[in-house]
Structure formats: C-alpha cells, structure tokens
Amino acid sequence: AQTVTQSQPEMSVQEAETVTLSCTYDTSESDYYLFWYKQPPSRQMILVIRQEAYKQQNATENRFSVNFQKAAKSFSLKISDSQLGDAAMYFCACRTGANSKLTFGKGITLSVRP
Amino acid sequence: GAGVSQSPSNKVTEKGKDVELRCDPISGHTALYWYRQSLGQGLEFLIYFQGNSAPDKSGLPSDRFSAERTGGSVSTLTIQRTQQEDSAVYLCASSLKGVGSNQPQHFGDGTRLSIL
Fold this sequence. Notes:
By secondary structure, chain A is mainly beta.
C-alpha cells in the first residue's frame, strides 16, 4: 500500500509570484506514477502534471513544474507567475503500476492575492 | 459528451433510504473508478472496473455499498440504508487503460450526497 502526505493545509501567494506546494509519498513498489490534481470550487478534479518514477527528468507543463526527489520520496509542485485562476485545492496522488487506483493526499488550499 | 458525466449533481435524502448515483464515462475508456471525498479531505478509493474483469472492491467501506457497470460503460453506485456518515461528494473517473498504464484518470463533477 502507498501513502501520500501533504502537511501544509493552506498556502497563499501574490499574483505573478512563484509558489511551491509540498508532497511526500511512500510506496514499496519500484514502478509508480505521481500526479498533481487541481480542484476548483466546481469540484471537478483537473490533472495538472504527472511524473513517471522511472524518469529522472522533472516534468513541466507551461507554468507548472515538479521537483521529483526519488530518494527522498518527495514530489513538490512549483507554480510560476501565479494567476488568480490558480486558486483552488491541489491534491498530490500516487499510483503504482500494479494497482490502478489513485492514493491521494489530503490536499492544500492555495489562495492567490491580487 | 466529451467528459465524464455524473448524475445527479446533488442528492439530499433521509437517513435509512437507498440512493443510486450514476456515472457515464468518456467513450472508449475501459477503466472506471469511484472515489469518495468527505468534507475537507482527500479522495478515498471505493471501487474500480476494468473491462470485463472482476471489479476491485477493496475500497468499499461496508456491505451497504455496491456498484455495477453494465455493458462496459455506464456505472451505478448504490448505497443502501444510508447513514449520516455517508454524506460526501462521490466522484467518478475513467481512463483509457487500467493496470500498468500511465494514462491519467479523468474526473466528473461529482455528486454531492447529503443525508439528513
């Protein structure tokens, strides 16, 4: 079984600034995938970025990038040039190759100050 | 439609009643998942369907919960004799493949269930 921990319940960032959201995980599997999902008030979970554990290169998607530290089992999300529309709950999730279900952290609420 | 569709969007019912929640996955997606999100919490896995294989029911919290997927497409999650602790948002997701795939799960807007 895997666990995902997001220890910061809330964060705030000034518009146009950069913010980093922390996540740690634990799994005994060698084949796994990591994801960040965004959940705005509309409730829909939107995939932000994903990382395959076997890839050393950190994933990037426009203003979103990750810092994947495999040995430390850390998977943080960096949002550059923060926009008002980035305000939402962000969930870190893990899925092993052997089991397709996602294990989620408790989430972090990000607010963006204009 | 283009995305995962769930109905109803909101459901209010009395304790002890049965409820059915519906999920219509993205066309062509063989894998379908149900999750539960309690207030202020992350998502908790409930059940997973992959093609014609036996579903993974390991996340169902009690025998009051059941789910079926007819014809490999639409799924119904049924909660019998509802309790107040069943109040939550129930989210459905689908993906192109299941085990061993890095295909992401695409989520619906969820059903907010409130038990009075």
